[in-house]
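Review form for a predicted model. The reviewer records the input and the model, then writes brief findings.
Reviewer: anonymous (R2)
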Amino acid sequence: MNDLNAQMESALKQAARRSLGADASGELRRTEVFVERIVGRREVHHQQPLQLAYPGLPEIEFWDREEFPWLASLEAAASDIREEIAAILAEDADVLAPYVDYPDAAVAEPWAELNRSPRWGAFHLWFDGRKVAWNAARAPRTMAALAGVPQPQTPGRSPMVVFSVLQPKTRIPPHTGVSNTRLVAHLPLIVPDGCCLRVGSETRAWREGEAWVFDDTIEHEAWNESDQPRTILIFDVWNPRLSETERAAITAVMAAMDAFGAVSG
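Model under review:
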């Protein structure tokens, strides 16, 4: 960015701050993104769901915390959750499954390098809408902390809850998620320096105990440039802009879609 654009960005952001005031945190963040797009410092990224695109939902990379009142109580349990997964990993070095696990004949880019690789491991508590009973029994405090989280309940699809362990010097390639009806939350638990997530035009470093929620149908990637493993808790939540009625309808549509596929197949 040249000096003139930098000066323009500063002037526009100052104007926004004067107009919005100090208490408008969410509005200010969005307005500053707007300014960064004006001056060409931030690209515009759109949702690219792999399968299910519900109309009328906003394209937001990292969502404002105010949309998720349960985040604070989850973060308050972070120490307990960290202790739980650390004990599990210490007890059983082979407990992790590959996070990416496709049949060799079916794997395609961008997953060829990480497919069935120990460099990105997973300890599933819920997988494709099914509780992984043995794993869940080993993490009772984690399960309790998630009890009040508004996760989709769509058999064969959601909930999804997993501890993600990314090994040193490993990069997760750019990709997009399945459906914009849900968002993805991260609770960082064991995070050495050099671990980041990029969603669209915004890159953030994880901080232990500080959760965030993002739209995984916007292109995103992650990396661990440190010399130690990085561990976070990942789970899905309903998009908060969907009404209860819409959530019920979406669940019914997905169930009917899966039933139709099972019969026709």
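Findings: The chain has a mean pLDDT of 92.
Further findings: DSSP finds seven helices and eleven strands in the chain.
Recommendation: see findings above.
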